Amino acid sequence: MTNLFTLENILVILAAYLFGSIPWALVIGKVFYKTDVREHGSGNLGGSNAGRVLGKAAGISVTILDALKSTFTVLICATWFPSATIVAGLAVCFGHCFPIFAKFKGGKAVATTMGYFLGIGLVTGQFISIFLLPIILFFGILYLCKMVSLSSILAIGTEAVVSFFIQPDLVLSFSFVALFLFVTYRHKSNIKRIFNHEEKKITWM
């Protein structure tokens, strides 16, 4: 985080936000399906809604592309702009949720957060504890509760807590906490439905 506020780093962080703003659900929906996913389902520009509206292939494609936005950003920054890596990764997630290319109405940052975990895991050499652990938790919790929203929140939250014990960089751990709080906030309507026993459950697991 040393010398974060240099002109170079500010430009890198801005570029990361713009990269994160690419609304892959909207692009894939309009280009391949002639459908604006914002007008269907939850209206969310994320992989879950894309899968619900456009089908499994589209949902998986959107999820992977959204995740890779933050993964690529972390890997590129770690190589050429190391002091901006963490903030640039967060900027991608922020851009995904509030994309300038889609009237600032985007997704909920689950895929981009997982992509951030992947990038950080590869950079730090802690692939299993930083990326694989939350992925296993996500699918394990999903198997039990059948709710993508709850599984996402709990998996990311667990990783945020565990990170304080598995690696020494407090700034990095606090970035995980920030993402957990952000993802939780973005799921506030889902949380309300969970408490009201109205949240939709998956049927494929």
TrEMBL record:
Substrates-to-products reaction catalysed: an acyl phosphate + sn-glycerol 3-phosphate = a 1-acyl-sn-glycero-3-phosphate + phosphate
Gene Ontology cellular component terms for the protein in this record: plasma membrane
UniProt EC number: 2.3.1.275
Subcellular localization: Cell membrane
InterPro entries documented for this protein: G3P_acylTferase_PlsY
Membrane spanning residue stretches: 12-33, 116-144, 164-185
Primary site of residence: membrane
GO molecular function, one term: acyl-phosphate glycerol-3-phosphate acyltransferase activity
Pathway per the UniProt entry: Lipid metabolism; phospholipid metabolism
Assigned protein family: Belongs to the PlsY family.
Function according to Swiss-Prot or TrEMBL: Catalyzes the transfer of an acyl group from acyl-phosphate (acyl-PO(4)) to glycerol-3-phosphate (G3P) to form lysophosphatidic acid (LPA). This enzyme utilizes acyl-phosphate as fatty acyl donor, but not acyl-CoA or acyl-ACP.
Complex formation: Probably interacts with PlsX.
Protein name as catalogued: Glycerol-3-phosphate acyltransferase
Protein's organism: Anaerorhabdus furcosa
Gene name of the record: plsY
